[in-house]
Amino acid sequence: VRCESTRTDEPKTKRNLVDNASNLLTTLLSGGSVGSMPIAEGAVTDLFDRPLFYSLYDWFLEHGSVYKLAFGPKAFVVVSDPIVARHILRENAFSYDKGVLADILEPIMGKGLIPADLDTWKLRRRVIAPGFHVLYLEAMVKIFTDCSERTILKFEKLLQGENLGGRKTIELDLEAEFSSLALDIIGLSVFNHDFGSVTKESPVIKAVYGTLFEAEHRSTFYIPYWNIPLARWIVPRQRKFQKDLKVINDCLDGLIRNAKETREETDVEKLQQRDYKNLKDASLLRFLVDMRGADVDDRQLRDDLMTMLIAGHETTAAVLTWAVFLLAQNPSKMRKAQAEIDLVLGQGSPTFELLKKLEYIRLIVVEALRLYPQPPLLIRRSLKSDVLPGGHKGDKDGYTIPAGTDIFLSVYNLHRSPYFWDRPHEFEPERFLVQKESEGIEGWAGFDPSRSPGALYPNEIISDFAFLPFGGGPRKCVGDQFALMESTVALAMLLQKFDVELKGSAESVELVTGATMHTKNGLWCKLGKRGDVH
Ligand code: HEM
């Protein structure tokens, strides 16, 4: 990646666009309020045959890093340029809200941080962000290791069973396993509730998955029929969704009630001193209830918890899934990762201090997020008219966009941009290390570490918004370090014990996308003790 964000006028390559007889999009796109902006010309089938962001990538190479796209009655501005991204996410962040995303998520997350309007967001971010204090993260490492241990025990038991029949490997859907693991971790760390989903199914877990499924359906279904009066009573899937929401909300309300009833002054003191090690319950909910006292609004608290449950669960499960998918196709990198684990951990468990030394594992996680960003698109809507930074071909002064413009900021395009990355589609965690090894410079290749001294991972600041694994600006992920540590622990503990191979070919693993990128039919793998999988 080049450190200084430069403009991307001339595409180096052009990909073939599927070209069929339909020029419907062209008709829909002509005209519009964003002036001379290039307009994507593609087949409507592109939008339905494969995940949208693939087509957005082709159009990026064809039309440049800011272009206009419409489907159905809606028009979107698609941004794949770091300087424009920096402008929207950081420099002029408060001129934008979450637009379409908020419309979709509001029925589920209410006024939780992700969909929240700016006024609510300002209040809540100030309250929630301090909850992710470094000492809280340190205390959470124990939850990450305990939960990962449960998953590993489950695999070992399955392997023992299989060994009776003389086989040395088991076949299982690791995406489903990572989903359960991430759910258990988020339950314990955010509201001190053990879903136990690695080993059992419960009505609450089923309801969580039902709700996630509906959120995904809504994010890919362009006509919001669920807003039609009575739809929630008449349409069966909407009735089920309402039922699932009630199950989760009742569970969350119970946890909030319990946290309020068990509030103790001694715990408040420990929390004030960040003495998490001596707290029975170090969860974020305890922090939010204790530090704010009884005045905190239950509805808001529930929205915050629901947001964290969804934001922290799917994303982490997805990054682990794609990290394993990539490693399984690169056995030499898996060996390299295992060598680092053996050196740093031996047979022991990761601790907060040891985690810092698992650098290659951390870079595998980061590289998996480069190739499979979660979510692949960040969504914004302009609250007032704005001028996007210019410099593009035919656009020296920048495009003026009116209030109400919907924007897709394609993180996928940025992360695979041929203008910023060498071999952009290849899995190379080492790409971040080149400079460090060859030039003896502390930092990551192509990035300027002085922009963010002490950064734990190659982030948006040192890449000048060319790399956004956790977004950027004021609405950047509040759980970035949490997620990075959690994924590093889970991956390290898995590879410490097991080798993994894909069950079928890499091509047979179909990708689908809603809020996050995941597989269509699971990540089916062969798993065995190290040395037993060939
Ligand atoms: C926001 C990614 C894990 C909580 C975001 C955003 C991204 C992101 C890109 C910005 C969205 C935007 O600008 O529209 C990820 C990834 C994760 C992860 C890739 C895992 C690998 C977590 C975890 C939590 C969490 C574990 C909580 C425990 C949130 C919240 C926001 C957010 C509350 C909204 C922040 C705000 O608007 O102030 N996440 N996230 N995320 N994330 Fe994460």
Question: Summary?
Answer:
The protein is an alpha+beta fold and 534 residues long. The protein has helices at residues 24-29, 45-49, 52-63, 82-91, 99-109, 118-128, 134-164, 174-191, 203-220, 231-234, 236-261, 265-272, 284-292, 298-328, 331-345, 352-357, 359-371, 411-415, 434-439, 480-497; strands at 66-71, 74-79, 96-97, 169-173, 377-382, 386-387, 400-401, 406-410, 498-502, 511-513, 517-519, 524-529.
List the helices and strands and how they pair.
Blueprint: H1 24-29, H2 45-49, H3 52-63, E1 66-71, E2 74-79, H4 82-91, E3 96-97, H5 99-109, H6 118-128, H7 134-164, E4 169-173, H8 174-191, H9 203-220, H10 231-234, H11 236-261, H12 265-272, H13 284-292, H14 298-328, H15 331-345, H16 352-357, H17 359-371, E5 377-382, E6 386-387, E7 400-401, E8 406-410, H18 411-415, H19 434-439, H20 480-497, E9 498-502, E10 511-513, E11 517-519, E12 524-529
Parallel strand pairs: 2-8
Antiparallel strand pairs: 1-2, 3-5, 4-12, 5-8, 6-7, 9-12, 10-11
The structure holds protoporphyrin IX containing FE (HEM).
Structure description:
The protein is α+β, with helices and mostly antiparallel strands. The chain has 20 helices and twelve strands. The protein has a five-stranded mixed beta sheet with strand order 1-2-8-5-3, with helices on both faces. Helix 8 packs antiparallel against helix 14. The longest helix is centred in the N-terminal third of the chain and has 31 residues, at 134-164. Protoporphyrin IX containing FE (HEM) binds at residues 113-114, 125, 190, 307-308, 311-312, 315-316, 319, 369, 374, 378, 470-471, 475, 477-479, 482-483, 487. The site of protoporphyrin IX containing FE has 23 residues, from helix 14 and helix 20.
